[in-house]
Amino acid sequence: MGSGITDADGHPVPVTVTAGEPAPVVVAERGAGQGLRVGIRLSPPAGELVWSCTPAAARELAAVLLRAAEETENAPGERPVTVEAGELRRGDVRDGDRSMTVESARTDGSTVHVTWKSGAGRSWSQAYATDTAITLKRRLSEGR
After folding, report:
1. Geometric angle at alpha carbon 131, from 129 and 137, rounded to 5°
2. How many Cβ atoms sit within 10 Å of the Cβ of residue 134?
3. Residue 7: what pLDDT?
4. pLDDT at position 88 over 80
5. What span, in angstroms and rounded, lies between the C-alpha atoms of 123 and 58?
6. Which of 26, 41, 88, 123 has the greatest number of C-beta atoms within 10 Å?
7. What DSSP line would sit under 46-94, residue for residue?
8. What is the rounded distance in angstroms from the CA atom of residue 88 to the CA atom of residue 135?
C-alpha cells in the first residue's frame, strides 16, 4: 500500500521512517543533533532525499501534519452529498450545525443501526430505514 504522498507530477513517493538511529556523520560532525534521531527517507523518481530530526522535532512535525489533515478533511466541500442510510460508512460526517461522525453502521434487514460520535466525544446509536436520506458534509474516500 502506498503512503499517499506524491511528487509535484503526481508520481507516488515511497516513504521510509526509521526510529532510534544514530545521527548521520555529517550532522554529528557539525555538532548538532547528537544522539538518536528519527530518519525520514523519501524516494521519488527524481532522486532520494534523506532527512533526520530529533524525536521532539518528529513529534512537532507529526502534530503539524495531523492538524493540517484535520483542517483539510473538515474544510467545507463543494456541496453536501445525500446517501441512503444503508450506504453510510465509518468516517462519514453528517451535515448540520453539530459535528457528527459515523463510528459504525450495520444493517439488520431493512434497518440500519448507526453509531454516531459527536465532536465532544460522546457516542450514541440511532436506527434508520435503509432508504432514509442522510445528508453528509463530508464523505471520506472508499479506501479509508
Report:
1. 100
2. 20
3. 77
4. yes
5. 32
6. 88
7. T--EEEEE-HHHHHHHHHHHHHHHHHHHHS--SS-EEEEGGG--TT-EE
8. 10
Judge contact between 86 and 80, C-beta under 8 A: no
Three-state SS string over 117-138 comes to EECCCCEEEEEEECCCEEEEEE
pLDDT of residue 106: 94
Q: Where is 28: in which H helix or E strand?
A: helix 25-29
C-alpha cell at 8: 509535484
> Which of the two residues, 127 and 79, has the higher pLDDT score?
127
- pTM of full prediction above 0.85: no
Rounded to whole angstroms, how far apart are CA atoms 29 and 17? Answer: 23
